[in-house]
Amino acid sequence: MRLEEQESGSASTTVELFYTGCMYDIGRMLVGLGLLFLVVGGLILLLGKTGLPFGRLPGDIAYRGKHTSFYFPLASSILISIVLSLVFYLLSRFRR
Fold it and tell me: What are the tens digits of pLDDT across the range 35-92?
């Protein structure tokens, strides 16, 4: 920073404006992510009450031993990936 900028105060104003704008964007992003988690959590709860076998699909790996258990929802993960890919593809097509 040059001495003239420091004395005039314009550099500090620029930094404050950048910081305020940046924090505003981060706040909006966090609120958006919170709402997204709320919606996804609600959908998962509703799917559980409908009796759909989500999380218990034929491709999901489940191992239950005497003292351990292991569960990896492979088919459910692939299904979620396909659905999200379709949603984001359609959103990108509508934004153009």
Answer: 989 998 888 788 778 877 777 889 999 999 999 999 999 998 999 899 889 988 998 8
Non-local (6+) Cβ contacts of 70 within 8 A are: 61, 62, 63, 64
Q: CA-CA distance, 62 to 18, in Å (whole number)?
A: 50
Q: How far apart are CA 64 and CA 3, in angstroms?
A: 69
Domain ranges of the chain: 1-52, 53-96
Report the C-alpha gap between 76 and 47 in whole angstroms: 13
